[in-house]
Amino acid sequence: MTRDQALFEFLCRMGDNTLILGHRVSEWCGHAPVLEEDIALANTALDLIGQTQLWLGLAGEVEGEGRDADKLAFHRDAWDFRNLLLVEMPNGDFGRTLMRQFLFDAWHTILLGRLMTSSEPRVAEIAEKASKEAAYHLERSADTVVSLGDGTEESHARMQAALDYLWPYVGEMFVADAVDQAMAEEGIAPDPASLRPEYDALLGRVLKEATLIIPDSHFAHKGGRDGRMHSEHLGHLLTQMQWLQRAYPDARW
Amino acid sequence: MYAQMIKTAGTGVKSPEEMTEEERRFQARVDANEKIEPKDWMPEDYRKTLIRQIGQHAHSEIVGQLPEGNWITRAPTLERKAILLAKVQDEAGHGLYLYCAAETLGVSRDELTEQLLSGKMKYSSIFNYPTLTWADMGAVGWLVDGAAIMNQVPLQRTSFGPYSRAMIRICKEESFHQRQGYDIMMKMAQGTPAQKKMAQDALNRFWYPSLMMFGPSDKDSVHSAQSMAWKIKMNTNDELRQKFVDQTVPQADYLGLTVPDDHLTWNEERGHYDFSEPDWSEFYDVLKGNGPCNVDRLTARREAWAEGQWVRDAMLAHARKKAATKVAAE
Ligand SMILES: [Fe+2]
Ligand SMILES: [Fe+2]
Ligand SMILES: [Fe+2]
Q1: Is A253 within a domain?
Q2: Pairing of strands B265-267, B272-274
Q3: Is residue A219 a part of any domain in this protein?
Q4: Residue numbers of B between 40 and 79 with CB closer than 8 Å to A
Q5: Which of A82, A104, B105, B124 has the least C-beta neighbours within 10 A?
Q6: Nearest CA to CA, how far is A178 from chain B (Å)?
Q7: Region annotation Disordered: residue ranges (chain B) (predicted)?
């Protein structure tokens, strides 16, 4: 694996996370529990799609085979996607959507912070822009997790169930493979495992305030970020997202 | 126009002799283009009519998210997806400004929402039509937002201060909505044969429903006369509809699309287009709940509200707990 091949993989991981999560969040449009949340969810999705354009745009550039961000988003099949399993999980209720968002935002913010000092200036530049948005997302999702966790009996039970359901998808964020090793050696991106202490501290703080209990298990589902085995959900998401591009390949939009 | 068939409260325009002293002073302020603010004295019927009108307008913004939201997950490029998301987010924001304006008249957002969900209050008939192809995202921006702008630009000068200010903010964003819609139409109309077909089909389906947005002719209505005297309605429905047709037909020509009206002709003498009226019996059917999407739209809103109950309860409960801990700590 050359440096650029590894960099391409890494950039797809970044861009596919924001693409798939942005898609999921946008499914809420017009259906949120309160108007302010509708606006906030649309805003989050919008930021994530914007970040996708940057990450996948750069991925296409690094690959050098004439694929742009749209080509990568709309013309790859599930096994070429490199997102975490976490972000392709269905929305569930509002509580689960926000719990997923929080679990992602916490990791994303820490990672982007490190990427701001990447040895690859184009990565550092995107990270700088994205980290401002991610910090705002984290503030919101953490606040919401706290209010709903420490709200009513029902909301507490729903949030605990959401955390229990999503927890096995957290571990994948911190497992390194050859791509990560190459990125770390080049000083482009940190070793994923090195983010865990800060992540655990942040989660511990917020979830304690939310009166929620972190499951006592380190089991982790894997297969998203290396594309080895996605969930069944991703294929359905792609049928919707890619349909127009696939059905009318000669059209310009 | 997002407010249709608003029933004006009261008995019609009063002559100065029929008015009380307060009413005369109020009308003089309106006539002098002064803004009426929430704390000012106002006739009860003015307040009631405004609540109906602003409320219906707000509901239209909210329900209006649904037909466009229908395509966000299928948008054909990342840029189109981002633009559409931004647009739908704006519409939710418009709903928020308008509910806030209505709240200054003494009705809460929750009360208005309950009235929407129970069917007591309406939203614009246009949102009861389905969005079936990507070209519909173009048609909605171009025609629906275009028609809304026709109505909302004059309402920036409306007599009620909070409504006027909400309209000024909203109009700034609406022109971006219309432009992005026209831009989609342009791409489609100049695209492949399949895309052109989608564009023409979208215009065919949205043309008459867009004309209906202005409501039936009201030039002889006593209610309209009262709303116009209060400056909460600035033009007759026919005036706005004509203006819309005059503006839109050349745009359709430019796109190379055909407006689905055999009687459409330029009338040199009037300096306007002559055009066919929409089928008003269809309009009344839609208002009665029999449009193609009435049931789906209201169901979507009712489910969102019902399924969000636990969230709203929890947020309230948490805010109370926090306030209580703060008090205890003091
Ligand atoms: Fe709007
Ligand atoms: Fe609108
Ligand atoms: Fe709009």
Answers
A1: no
A2: antiparallel
A3: no
A4: 62, 65-66, 69, 72-79
A5: B105
A6: 30
A7: 1-20
Determine whether the interchain pair A30/B191 forms a contact, defined as Cβ–Cβ distance below 8 Å.
Answer: no
* C-alpha to C-alpha distance for B205 and B138, rounded to whole angstroms: 12
Does residue B315 sit at the A interface (CB-CB below 8 Å)? Answer: yes
The packing angle between helices A178-185 and A3-26, to 10°, is 110
The three state secondary structure string of A7-61 is HHHHHHHHHHHHHHHHHHHHCCCCCCCCHHHHHHHHHHHHHHHHHHHHHHHHHHH
Q: Please count the structural domains in chain A.
A: 1
pLDDT along chain B (330 residues), means of 10: 80 90 96 97 97 97 97 98 97 97 97 97 97 98 97 96 97 93 98 98 98 91 89 95 98 98 98 97 96 97 97 97 87
CB spacing of A42 vs B321 below 8 angstroms: no
Range of the domain at A115: 3-214+224-247
Query: Which residue from B92, B184, B309 is facing A38, i.e. has the nearest CB?
Result: B92
Classify residue A87: in a domain, yes or no.
yes
**Predicted ipTM of the assembly:** 0.97
Distance from CA of A196 to the nearest CA of B (A): 30
- pTM of this prediction? 0.96
- Answer yes or no: do A23 and B66 touch at CB < 8 A: no
Asked whether residue A72 is domain-assigned, the answer is yes
| Nearest-neighbour CA in chain B from A193: distance (Å) | 31
- CA B203 to chain centroid, in Å, comes to 19
Are A137 and A105 a contacting pair, CB within 8 Å? Answer: yes
Q: What is the DSSP string of B230-292?
A: TTS--S-HHHHHHHHHHHHHHHHHHHT---S-TT-EEETTTTEEE-PPP-HHHHHHIIIIIST
- CATH (domain of A83): 1.20.1260.10
Distant-in-sequence, close-in-space partners of B220: CB < 8 Å, separation ≥ 6: none
CB contact under 8 A, A39 and B89: yes
